[in-house]
Structures are given as structure tokens and as C-alpha cells.
Amino acid sequence: MASPTVTVVRYSAIFTGIIYGIVHQRTLQRQYDEQKARKAYAAKKAAEKGGASSRQSIFQALFDTSDHAAMLPKTKADGLTVITDPDDPRFDLEKLVESWTKES
């Protein structure tokens, strides 16, 4: 016979796992729905452009509609460029923190 503490811990773990599974499934479903909508929009846009929905035109439309602005360096009004990608060799943490403090 298990002690009451073990029983509480066991049921708490089961309940936590079920809640985590529900939240994780919703997140994955939302990502899948967004991806499906982007592909449908890209196929529609490619069909409007060239008439034929070739694989290359669909990928080009996907590339055009994706959010690539987040991957590009941000340019400030004064002409200074702040690299926000830490994998970029030109990344400078001090400049990034300084730009954040100027924005605040």
C-alpha cells in the first residue's frame, strides 16, 4: 500500500503531464495551421503570377511572404546598424544593449 504522499505525487505528475500534453498539442496545431495557410497563400500567389504552380514558383512565393525582416540587421535613423543575430561574426553585444537603452 502506497503512502498518501506518494499517491499525491503520482497523481500530480499525471495531471501535470496531461495539461502539458494539451498545451503542447495546441501549440503544434497552431504552427501547423499557420504553415498550411502560408503554403496555400504562396500557391495561390504563384498561380496568379505565372499561371503554372511549379515547385520553384511556390518556393519563391513562400520566400517572399516569409518574415525575413527579423533576420536582417536593424538600421537606425542615424545610420547605425545593430546586428541582432548572435551567430553573426559582426554581432556586438554592447551596441545591442546600448540601442535598447536608447529606445527606452
TrEMBL record:
It is found in: Mitochondrion inner membrane. It comes from the Eukaryota. Its main location: mitochondrion. One of its GO terms (cellular component) is proton-transporting ATP synthase complex. GO terms for molecular function: proton transmembrane transporter activity. The keyword Transport applies. Keywords: ATP synthesis, CF(0), Hydrogen ion transport, Ion transport, Membrane, Mitochondrion, Mitochondrion inner membrane, Transport. Signal peptide: none annotated. GO terms for biological process: proton motive force-driven ATP synthesis. InterPro entries: ATP_synth_F0_esu_mt (IPR008386). F-type ATPases have 2 components, CF(1) - the catalytic core - and CF(0) - the membrane proton channel. CF(1) and CF(0) have multiple subunits. Subunit e, of the mitochondrial membrane ATP synthase complex (F(1)F(0) ATP synthase or Complex V) that produces ATP from ADP in the presence of a proton gradient across the membrane which is generated by electron transport complexes of the respiratory chain. ATP synthase complex consist of a soluble F(1) head domain - the catalytic core - and a membrane F(1) domain - the membrane proton channel. These two domains are linked by a central stalk rotating inside the F(1) region and a stationary peripheral stalk. Belongs to the ATPase e subunit family. This is ATP synthase F(0) complex subunit e, mitochondrial. It comes from Tremella mesenterica (Jelly fungus). The lineage of its organism: Eukaryota, Fungi, Dikarya, Basidiomycota, Agaricomycotina.
